[in-house]
Amino acid sequence: MTDTPLLKVSGVSKFYGSRIGCKDVSFDLWPGEVLAIVGESGSGKTTLLNCLSTRLMPTTGSVEYRMRDGNFRDLYHMSEAERRFLMRTDWGFVHQNPADGLRMTVSAGANVGERLMAVGDRHYGKIRETASDWLTRVEIGTDRIDDQPRAFSGGMRQRLQIARNLVTGPRLVFMDEPTGGLDVSVQARLLDLVRGLVNDLGLSAIVVTHDLAVARLLSHRMMVMKDGHVIEHGLTDRVLDDPREPYTQLLVSSILQV
Ligand SMILES: Nc1ncnc2c1ncn2[C@@H]1O[C@H](COP(=O)(O)OP(=O)(O)OP(=O)(O)O)[C@@H](O)[C@H]1O
Ligand SMILES: [Mg+2]
């Protein structure tokens, strides 16, 4: 980790009409750090994640991102083209439903290769080789490279989505309930895989989950949301082992866990 944040989030609020999506959220994210956003259904996790990743414009607040040249840029004052470029190169976004993050009717190899082409790779043989490498890294047999994701199981689709996102060497990955729709045993393996990749690649990540076990396994720090507000924020082990807020204590004692 360096001594400069990757992301500086300041006073981000999103209202849907008069309804609060999220309110006055501020934090810094450091290089190599994994932050979990937890809270019950409707607490504002997805709203916040979408604001951070500019998929949604907040009502107020700012998010500054440190570009590769070291300069901070305000994400909400970038052009659409610049934002799209960031999304293709520096960032990944792993959706809960893999179908939202994959092209279901092109091959697994093309799903991974497409991201490489988007950053300027043109050499077919090299693209295919890298795609095949990445399939192996996410434990998909290279004999499946020409299969379409619709022929894959839910867990395989999710692993493919992860390969597609990581192949370009992003610096920051957003994940919304990455293990949400999967069986418990499939979840555990996927989490191990994600943890290994995040460690190996030194990525920063922001992971939304309502599952505290996921937060425990993946994150260094966590924020607990309730009714759109961040009510507790700290090192993951501290928050889970010694929660300060009564609501977090309830969450941890699993009374509110779904
Ligand atoms: N497009 C929208 N229009 C109006 N209200 C919305 C919209 N999206 C979310 N909300 C409201 O914003 C609040 C936060 O919703 P959000 O989807 O961010 O919660 P969440 O923590 O991700 O929940 P879940 O765990 O169920 O995914 C809720 O009250 C929700 O009803
Ligand atoms: Mg959500």
Automatic annotation (TrEMBL):
It comes from the Bacteria. Residues 7-252 form the ABC transporter domain. InterPro entries: AAA+_ATPase, ABC_transporter-like_ATP-bd, ABC_transporter-like_CS, P-loop_NTPase, PhnK. GO terms for molecular function: ATP binding; ATP hydrolysis activity; lyase activity. GO terms for biological process: organic phosphonate catabolic process. PROSITE patterns: ABC_TRANSPORTER_1, ABC_TRANSPORTER_2. Keywords: ATP-binding, Lyase, Nucleotide-binding. Gene3D superfamilies: P-loop containing nucleotide triphosphate hydrolases. NCBIfam families: CP_lyasePhnK (TIGR02323). Belongs to the ABC transporter superfamily. This is Phosphonate C-P lyase system protein PhnK. It comes from Neorhizobium galegae bv. orientalis str. HAMBI 540. The gene is phnK.
